[in-house]
Design a protein that fits this description.
The protein is 40% helix and 23% strand. Strand 9 and strand 10 form a beta hairpin.
Length: 257
């Protein structure tokens, strides 16, 4: 049984076929990348597997349970949690408060309780765990800063921290290095590796930055025109003639890596 699997997945919007009969299996402990040229169907695929769209046909399974058709909130409670290209932060609250709020919301607390939580033993545990996550991701020095005052790179890391606050087993990252400079990208790559290697969290990511994908992922799935074009290790993908053609030529894909 695969840890996370997609079977014959299709998604149509009227007469437009955005995803067409896609199969994918991710093993526990893997970092899997999903790539493809613009218009390949990556965003739709990510929205379907994370519960924001319902598939037209096919299934998504997580730890042997069919999750396709479930709302994203229920999928998250099962342990498959998604981040967004634009981090959904509470800008007027501190880094620590943002992570604590994420823990509360995952536990079905009201927003007011999430923000002002009661000073009890459980709340102390939430704060302690939130600090642990912040330190793990290198945000200790930013802990008391408002989210709105963080750099773009630190805001993206905070978005990951909030996802980790829900204690996922599968972390789905939507373009985790989008808009980052080379230094910020290197930091994010290192953090994703730590999340997998130290906390044993499986990672599925969609990303445009080929250098990041090739350096980070154990295996890569390539989509083109809504279908799975190729799948394999980074070396296999970069030397695949169909992938090279989809990316408009060998020079283009090599330049991206």
């Amino acid at each position: 049984m695969s840890f996370f699997s997609v079977k014959n997945l299709s998604k149509n919007f009227g007469g437009l076929i955005a995803n067409d009969s896609i199969d994918l299996e991710v093993e526990k402990g893997e970092i899997r990348g999903v790539i493809g040229p613009n218009g390949a169907g990556k965003t739709t695929f990510f929205n379907v597997v994370s519960g924001f769209y319902t598939p037209t046909s096919g299934t998504v399974e997580f730890k042997g349970q069919v999750i396709s058709g479930l709302p994203s909130s229920k999928i998250a409670k099962l342990g498959a949690v998604r981040t967004f290209q634009r981090a959904a932060l509470f800008p007027e609250f501190t880094v620590l408060e943002n992570v604590v709020i994420a823990r509360h919301i995952n536990a079905n607390a009201s927003l007011m309780n999430a923000i002002f939580g009661h000073k009890n033993h459980a709340e102390a545990g939430n704060v302690e765990r939130s600090i642990e996550i912040i330190e793990f991701l290198g945000l200790k020095d930013e802990q008391d800063n408002l989210a709105l005052n963080l750099s773009h790179g630190h805001q993206r890391v905070l978005g990951v921290a909030m996802a980790l606050a829900t204690e996922p087993e599968l972390l789905m990252l939507d373009e985790p290095v989008a808009g980052m400079n080379s230094g910020e990208k290197a930091i994010m790559v290192g953090l994703i590796q730590k999340i997998r290697d130290i906390w044993d969290i499986t990672v599925l990511l969609v990303e445009h930055d080929m250098r990041t994908v090739m350096s980070l992922c154990d295996k890569i799935t390539v989509l083109d025109f809504g279908q799975k074009l190729a799948e394999g290790t980074p070396d296999e993908i970069i030397n695949n003639d169909e992938v090279i053609e989809a990316y408009l030529g060998a020079d283009d894909i090599v330049a991206r890596t």
